[in-house]
């Protein structure tokens, strides 16, 4: 019997690490590790330049939530991603958690390696994959990379100048994920990424906000305290993308945008918001 | 013969004050004062708590652009807005320029006063009105006011918590204007304002970016280096606005969004982007 692929939990960064309430994002992240017999979390700190500090933060947060075991896999170079001992460390994990940092470190150190192949295989077998901030951005097939500054540092051209992209992990197809969305004013950059190929849905995640992707990647549910912004570019009637006269800002007409909040559901397959599960709302 | 109302130039704040190139926003703001015989600019510093510094900044900027005369009208209290001497100071002006600061100071100190009545009358007679930042926000009939923090200071509820509104000047009907748009991550708050009454178009202006409203308020053209975001809520199929279960973020489905860049035109009357004037673009 073929197993269902594991859940993907994609977090916009800066998730609450103190809360232990039912709706806290990290509680959802830890769920599978807590419920499974001998289940544990492997924290992948490849993205960050401060792996010890990151590990300590999550060790404390997950401990508070009742996770009995968290292992840290800290890949510093490609050689380590080829080391069978490191690949073996993933065995038996219920949850693989990619920390924040620089998404290019994730793909450049792990892309094409036996370690990443093993992660794909485990996901197919039902292991949950979680990524926050850089770990979230890396989920898509093509990922946004920050460039030297975020859109907020320079009002003069928030779109094209910060629209640097690179090949991502491809754990979730057909989307472009951006994190720290409202906090760093990234609407224009995600819109620009969508306009490059409207096949992809743009998913912008506020901080302390996540989408839980289930049912073989067909739909997601929103978790956390902020908003999720879905940019659907299929209706775009005009873009200045290939117009050589354009400098800076990209003109885009008629994009469709959904703003989603906690418990809202969205069909990735149907590109539509799904009706709320609560019978009280229309 | 009835004269055409004057232009409205609505600036997203932090406009370039050093540049004297043809496309600089302040050059457009000064145009009418330079071209008219004896024309001058009246700078209204009512919004700011640093009127001297603001006046000095614009005196230097407009002097560099060739403006021969700039008067400062600094209203500190409502009494001054009733003083005939102050009303008289507007006579003969080609351009009235509202500085940035706090938009509530503009409306609370000037709302309903003879000074504001005179400004409305002058606008109808062809005088150009310019507003930047707070001066831009105050242009609409209902205006967004910042609240204690902008959306960027708190990722937990960027929408409703910062969605404080107040009656504006009403110089431009049927719109809600927000400034510092990408720089302060204000997409969710403008979307929330639009969802409250989708009759209004949301117009988000990046810094150093402006819309020049012409032809009896029927259309605008984009100036400056950033983007203009038009949120059209007429297509919204669902919003959680009146759902008492909602906390924080507002769910909105199917908003239409246009991103516009320098020289792009938009029909306010038709709620549609207009074709570029350049024959080179489709």
TrEMBL record, chains A, B:
Catalytic activity: [L-4-(L-arginin-2-N-yl)aspartate](n) + H2O = [L-4-(L-arginin-2-N-yl)aspartate](n-1) + L-4-(L-arginin-2-N-yl)aspartate
Domain of life: Bacteria
InterPro entries noted in UniProt: Class_I_gatase-like, Peptidase_S51, Peptidase_S51_cyanophycinase
Gene Ontology molecular function: any one: carboxypeptidase activity
Keywords for this protein: Carboxypeptidase, Hydrolase, Protease, Serine protease
A family per Pfam: Peptidase_S51
Class of this enzyme: hydrolase
Function: Exopeptidase that catalyzes the hydrolytic cleavage of multi-L-arginyl-poly-L-aspartic acid (cyanophycin; a water-insoluble reserve polymer) into aspartate-arginine dipeptides.
Name of this protein: Cyanophycinase
Organism: Archangium minus
Homology family: Belongs to the peptidase S51 family.
Phylogenetic placement of the source organism: Bacteria, Pseudomonadati, Myxococcota, Myxococcia, Myxococcales
EC number in record: 3.4.15.6
């Amino acid at each position: 019997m073929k197993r269902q692929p594991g859940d993907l939990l994609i977090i916009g960064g800066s998730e609450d690490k103190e809360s232990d309430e039912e709706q806290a994002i990290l509680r959802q992240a830890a769920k599978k590790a807590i419920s499974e017999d001998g289940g544990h979390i492997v924290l992948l700190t490849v993205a960050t330049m401060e792996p010890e500090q990151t590990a300590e933060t999550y060790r404390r947060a997950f401990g508070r939530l009742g996770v009995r075991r968290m292992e840290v896999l800290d890949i510093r170079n490609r050689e380590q991603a080829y080391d069978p001992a490191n690949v073996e460390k993933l065995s038996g994990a219920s949850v693989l958690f990619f920390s924040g940092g620089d998404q290019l470190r994730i793909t450049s150190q792990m892309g094409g390696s036996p370690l990443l192949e093993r992660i794909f295989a485990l996901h197919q077998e039902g292991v949950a994959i979680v990524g926050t901030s850089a770990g979230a951005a890396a989920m898509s097939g093509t990922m946004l990379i920050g460039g030297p500054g975020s859109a907020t540092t320079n009002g003069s051209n928030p779109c094209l100048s910060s629209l640097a992209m690179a090949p991502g992990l491809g754990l979730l197809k057909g989307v472009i994920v951006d994190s720290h969305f409202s906090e760093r004013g990234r609407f224009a950059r995600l819109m620009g990424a969508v306009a490059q190929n409207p096949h992809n849905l743009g998913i912008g995640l506020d901080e302390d906000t996540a989408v839980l992707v289930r049912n073989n990647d067909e739909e997601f549910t929103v978790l956390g305290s902020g908003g999720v912004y879905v940019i659907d570019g299929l209706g775009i009637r005009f873009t200045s993308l290939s117009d050589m006269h354009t400098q800076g800002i990209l003109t885009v007409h008629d994009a469709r945008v959904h703003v989603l909040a906690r418990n809202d559901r969205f069909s990735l397959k149907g590109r539509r918001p799904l009706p709320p599960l609560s019978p009280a709302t229309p």
